[in-house]
Amino acid sequence: MGATALAEAIARIETRYGTRAVVRGSIARRQNDERRIHADSSLDRVTGGGIRAGEPLAFVGPPTAGKQALALMVAAAAQREGGMAVWIDPTASFDPRAALRAGVHLERLVVVRPSNAEEVLLAGSAVLRSDGFRLAVVDLGPAFASRCR
Fold this sequence. Notes:
This protein is mainly α. The chain has helices at 3-17, 25-34, 42-46, 67-80, 96-101, 117-129, 141-147, and strands at 36-37, 51-52, 85-88, 109-112, 135-138. Helix content is 47%, strand content 11%. The N and C termini lie far apart (52 Å).
């Protein structure tokens, strides 16, 4: 591909997706690091350097395995890095005392309590379209999952 063809291809991509769609490797690497949430735990090693902000990640396991504690730890890490977090909680199981113990700042956490699966999807999609949140936790829990069948 010649220089002119490459320039034209980049111009088409930037026209369609915006001027930040194409970046040099060093800038892309820096932006990739900026998009990661570093929990300062073994989770960073397992996920290859932290959880990528904006990408789905599921904590799955039996009850009392520590999934909620892990999610609270990541929410606190997202807030330490200057971001807001949202906790979508259709089962109303969010515990503010546990959140405080995990280091979550409640004034920078939005708790949404949808009542059905459709509202969970609406809340989740609204959060994903927003630039205001560094992290979104969807805490379905077994009780809510069984209602969706």
